[in-house]
Amino acid sequence: MIDWIVILQAGVASGTVLLFAAIGGIMTERSGVMNLGIEGMMLIGAMTAYKTAVVLGQPWLGLLLAMLAAGALSLLHAVVSIHLQADQVVSGLAINFVGIGLSMVLGEGLSKAGAVSLLPSITLPLVSDIPILGPILFTNHNPMTYVGYVLTPAAWFYINRTRPGLHLRAVGEHPAAADALGINVYRLRYRYVFVGGLLAGLAGGTISLAVSPGWFSELTTSGQGWIAVGLVIFAQWNPWRAAAGAYMFGALRRLILDLQGPQTLLWFANPFYYMPKLGFFLQMLPYALVILILFIGSREALKKRMGAPAALGVPYIRGERGL
Amino acid sequence: MKPIPFRSVLVFGAVSLLVAACAAPVAAPKAAEPTQATAAEPAQPQQQAGLQIPDVQQGKFNVAAVLIGPHDDGGWSQAHYEGLVYVGQNVPNTHVAYVENVPEGAEAEQVIRGLARKGFDLILTTSFGYMDATGAVAEEFPNQTFVHVSGFKTNGKNFGNLFGAMENMKYLAGMIAGSRAKLDGQTKLGYIATFPIPEELRLGNAFALGMRKTCPDCTMDVRWINTWHDPVIEKAAAESLFDAGAYVVFTGADTPAPADVAQAKGKWGITYDWVGSCKVERCLTAPYWDWGKIYAKIAQGVIDKTYKPGFDYFDADSGALGIYGLMEGQELTPGMKDLPAEDLQMVRDILAKMLKGEFNRFDVFAGPIKDNAGNVVVPEGEKMSQADLDQFPPGAEGLACKYCMYWWAEGVTAELPKQ
To answer: Which entry of A115, B119, B152, B397 is 20 to 30 Å from A11 by CA?
Structure first.
């Protein structure tokens, strides 16, 4: 039998990584700056967090430093794309290379580390007794999973219901108008690129200290940053949809494996038991979806309909006509 | 918005330079250890755009390795990398270098050709998919030696094949796992299998045969992951097996995921490939590769002109295979300490025979062997041949197999993968 509770529980745990990265991406892109450097920032975060845990034995400090390290890298992207007004796609891709290169150099030898103290696993009292939801959401998760539950509504509320959130949307939709109203477009864009970096770093640290612990060079993140990039568009820059997508992708990863277990599914012979290669197809789905999404993202008309911030990818130059 | 192409180009240029600058000065060379040979840290190739080919050192014997993953991946590639370091430290007057993260296919051929053109005397290519590329380049550079690890081709002149019978160590790991499960009153084990190829069936079956020796009631569940190295999927597969009731999980892939997950669930995991992978308390053991001695032997053989390229398939007596916790100079892992003395003794006895060359892969696959449907695969008194160990039926032309490697051993609760 397929144990759906276990699959969803695993999906929530591994989906948290995608969630952090995607919400970071949403924050950055809502301010009008494309963010393709998530994978590189996550890798820097994963390396920093693990290295701190190895060297100092402090996983919590590791998470903090992971955020700051990825945040620092994101500032490079900010300088290049906001201040120097360079192509944001190119800058984002370059950030990936910087992130991968730096983390490989600084992570040298980390794979040889012995036993490392990781984030603990926590079961919340009371709420974990709720049938079905309790075991899925509140049992045996690392603390970051619970942070994810809080982050999603908080991010939505911040973007849609607060004054700073309004400013954030304004600089992403119509920076010139925002500027005319006295909002400092450059400063805000810098701020949200940095926030995106912090969250990407947190995602990376969550990987190396909890979700799939350890340091395996650039394989550590294994392309999850790219899934997050797609997820931002898939979610139409909405944190709730991002959460749904992140947990769905997380659960899919586990489902592929559990499907190989039982001989029958609902009284039928289980094709995944007899032909494990079918799993290839399911494994491909998130990536296929990312391709589709990036295709949509590249079409101007479709992008509008998807609800992209109008000034996304367009550097703001003060005093020039245009957006 | 006015486009500013020149500025963007400038910025991108600056960023790429930064990337190059970051990637180039890898960890300062460590002081060479004072051994009798000239010790050398492998040169790190520069990595600005694509794959950079390292340089040879004049007047030395130059050895290069081509790695599929990062040299510190904690698994397969790291085991090869450390073998290379061993060559640099133990074969006199050698210079060693490597190129990492080389994808299989056209790029691999370019890298191998680049190394040959630079003048490396011995080039080790360490992934299955490098086989044809290595063979092609070997034809172009007849005076240099090429050794391909795994795979099944050689030209008998300067392109040799090298692999080892890991089934020996998987067999022992299976015995240890079975003993552990039986002791704790559990009967279900799990296998994280990579690709449906003969090697993975062979290693899984060797483990299952060993398991049944110490625990006749034990069964083994299987998850196919279709990758050699993906930390995320490997961890999910380990969790999937443990959650389905497995008590000891072993892996055909690279990362120590089974042991890490076992740690969290209070069960046992068995890692693979690299001696350093068995770190946590709940790691029961690890079958691993120790390429140093065998690479050093080949390098010395090429220097002395005694190495004959061909099919070099080594067993445990080569010293290149290990089972963590039981080899010379190692202590029993925490999970082995309280195993029944007679089980442990049986493992030690067979290991000792393996190291002396008295027990090899053909003894692992000696009849009577039954499959999981109760059919006899190998009758009493018969043994499998190399062609059987390597191939799905009917086998290659001119190298047909009699028993073949397309069966699951007794106790495996999985269906055979469709070919």
So the answer is: A115
Considering the domain boundaries, does residue A319 fall inside one? no
Higher pLDDT, B391 or B138: B138
Task: Please tell me the distance in Å from B105's CA to the nearest CA on chain A.
Answer: 20
Per-residue confidence band for B41, with pLDDT thresholds at 50, 70 and 90? low
Contact B275, B290 (CB under 8 A): yes
Task: Inspect the interface and report whether the beta carbons of B281 and A115 lie closer than 8 Å.
Answer: yes
CB atoms within 10 A of CB A132: 10
Residue A42 lies in a domain: yes
Q: Prior bond to A125 cis, omega within 30?
A: no
Pair of tokens at residue A129: 């007794």
Is-contact A199 A20, C-beta < 8 A? yes
Q: What's the token pair of residue A229?
A: 């990039």
Torsional class of B134: left (φ above 0), alpha (ψ -120 to 50), beta (otherwise)? alpha
**CA–CA gap between residue B153 and residue A22 (Å, rounded):** 47
Q: In this structure, what CATH number is given to the domain that contains residue A49? A: 1.10.3470
Q: Residue B15: pLDDT band by 50, 70, 90 thresholds?
A: very low
Which residue segment(s) compose the domain that A122 sits in?
A: 4-305
pTM value?
0.82
Q: What is the pLDDT of residue A160?
A: 95
For residue B325, pLDDT over 70 is answered with: yes
Q: How far apart are the first and last CA of chain B?
A: 57
In a domain, A118, yes or no: yes
Interface test with B, best of A6, A104, A108, A226 (most B CBs within 10 A): A104
Per the CB < 8 Å rule, is A216 touching B280?
A: no
Task: Tell me if B15 and A261 make a contact (CB, 8 A cut-off).
Answer: no
Phi and psi of B269, rounded to 5°?
-125, 155
**Is A316 within the bounds of a domain?**
no
